[in-house]
Amino acid sequence: MKAEGVGELIGGVTALLGYMPAHSLVIAPFVGSRAHSALRMDLHTDSETRAQMVATAMGITCRVTGVTGFAAVVYTDGTEAEHQALASDLLLAAEYIGLNVIELAYVTPTGWGEFYEGAERPLDSLPALPGPEFIKDGDQSTGASLPVVDESLRMKILAASLPNVETVDFTSLFEEVLTWDPQALDVPKAALLAGIVSLPMFRDTALIQWATDEEGGREALAAQRAFAHGWSIPDRIGNVLMGKAPRPQADRLRAALAVCRMLASHTPATDRAALLTVCTWLSWAMGNSTHATFYVDQAQKADPSLSMAHLLAEVLNIGMLPEWAFTP
User: Fold this and answer.
1) Per-residue pLDDT tens for 138-176?
2) Which range has the worst mean pLDDT, 140-144, 191-195, 225-229?
3) pTM reported for the whole predicted model
4) Which one has a higher pLDDT value, 328 or 150?
5) Rounded distance, CA 219 to CA 38, Å?
6) Residues whose CB falls within 8 Å of the CB of residue 199, separated by 6 or more in sequence, listed in order
7) H or E segment at 227?
8) How far apart are CA 177 and CA 293, in angstroms?
9) Domains of the chain
10) Is the dihedral of CA 261, 135, 21, 249 positive or negative?
């Protein structure tokens, strides 16, 4: 993102997120004159929580490779005056850690503007936001709800016969998933996927493959099988699940997420919990912690004993992001 003027900057920050946030603080770290990503946080006004929010935001900003400054936009359903203390805290934090403040802006239900810089301008004077190819309808919560259940599809998946797993080429299946149309699933293959991702070995292999490639999946599966016989999993493989790897291709993650969301709507509770956990990780890997939190909450309700869901819940609770979120 490169913008001139606060109005264009608000549009650019919104485009980085891909939606118009509600009740949020959004930080766009700048490297020189450009920003490539944005961090959204729930907005708080009480002093203690606000201080924690600013500390977290600045800590994450400082992890961005080559960061020199940041722009902040407050999206509020209240007034600009309610968040002047937040703007002041951000200025003080930036001065303390040596970051440039590119802009401190706000958007309210009736207007927009800059903190400490003149009167609020009418909302209809905000420069046109980027089109729907960049910004979806809704806010940060939109799109998390699972697809509506098709009872016919649910019964077909439930009744599907599964093949002997010894005959299945798992990595070919996981790669094929990325080409599926979620609205027209191949029922036997979909049922097979739903069943095998409930097993940690295949769940982890699928996630690693979707975040890398088919060769990465083959290596991950071999490592998982060796682990079952007492061997340790190589760091380069385990690190993918921890977000310590090259940035995945977003299209691969989105395609896998679309399929797993559809399956999670149409499977029994145990399989649904595993699929929701997969949805959690995929959303987290794409930097969408809001959706990830929704999925992990649903996973834990479906199966309170699922250890991977507990682990991901802790990751989300402490605000941990994948390391690839901090590299251009």
Assistant:
1) 666 666 788 899 999 999 999 998 888 778 899 999 999
2) 140-144
3) 0.79
4) 150
5) 33
6) none
7) helix 214-227
8) 24
9) 6-125 (3.40.140.10), 151-326 (no CATH)
10) positive
